[in-house]
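Running co-folding for magnesium ion.
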Amino acid sequence: MLVVQKYGGSSVADAARIKHVAARVIRRLREGDQVVVVVSAMGDTTDELIKLAYSVADDPAPRELDMLLSTGEQMSVALLAMAMRAQGQEAVGLTGHQAGIFTRAHYGSGRISRVEADRVRAELAAGRVPIIAGFQGTTEEMEIVTLGRGASDTTAVALAVALGAGRCENCKDVTGIYTTDPRIEPRARQLKDITYEEMLELATQGSQVMHNRAVELASVYGLPVLVTSSMVDAPGTLIHGESELEERNRVRGIAHDIDVAKITVRQVPDRPGVAAHIFEPLAEAGISVDTIVQNASDHSLTDLTFTIARQDLKRAEALMPSICAAVGAPDYSANGGLGKVSIVGVGIQTAHGYAARMFRVLFDAGINIELITTSEIRLTCIIAAERVPDAVRALHSAFELETPE
Ligand code: ASP
Ligand code: MG
């Protein structure tokens, strides 16, 4: 089988780990598989490069920032290729450009538009292990563009799709996907498998195991992704399209986030265009809005509440007076101390009682729910940030997530 293995920054953080990864890839080849490797920058290199950039300029040019950041991954591929050759295996390090990864649009947030994998295929055919820089690509104008923080996962999935690989293996410093964050709930259990949809909800709802664009891409192409340890031999968690709907606990995991802010625009005249007037300026400022709730109107006045990331609150508040004036609302209120907790699982919306149980658990723990949102496979409650850990533990136990499947 052809596999694309991706190694994250902590798995290649120093010389010893790089040699370990080299040995691990070679062992895999001996088992009869073909391997293409994608790597991230060593350890905290990307953060350090960003710091360095800001130490020479207050507002570094985005083009040059990408020029700089892309070198982090380039270091890793060169070192890993050297280590593999030193261990007797032919290997070749390739930049995103050399590997044919084409991207569209903005510096710092490029999107992969296509992969021309001929070079990678040729290296494989010649018996050399292609080791490819994650997180970067080239535009049609041959400009280097990075793909957004954590996006080496996305590079790996895109390459696996382009090469028709049997699966992508995301090799990390954790052994797989857990029912919740083990730092909050030590009884969290590793899942054997999880569906793309569930993983996507867990990833975007604040569990940092895998880049959400990578999960999205894998889902579109039906590519299985194994999240596994680069350090120890452990089974890992398979992300794929199948689920045994009728048989198991429908709640698969609990996601959380402690950086939520809420803004309520009060007494908004209920007329067409109000929502557009409120959300357009926020969108223009690059502030993404998560949950939106509009109350039923009373005497043609309505309250409109939305949530954003806490780090965007200051910028949003700066826009609020003019937004209120534009829609004719007397004022607004803001709360920057919120968090959210979600139960995630295919089928929870169609099954009975999950919502009621979630609310009862939070009530019994004395936790006030500020807002509730749902998707087909998720129930989310916005609560006080400081109560999030308690909520995670209470829900984990109430839904019996520590019990093996
Ligand atoms: N090195 C990049 C980052 O730290 C990309 C990655 O790790 O996936 O964001
Ligand atoms: Mg990194």
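Result summary
The chain is about 35% helix and 30% strand.
The pocket of magnesium ion (ligand 2) is lined by residues 9, 40-41, 46 (CB under 6 Å).
Job closed.
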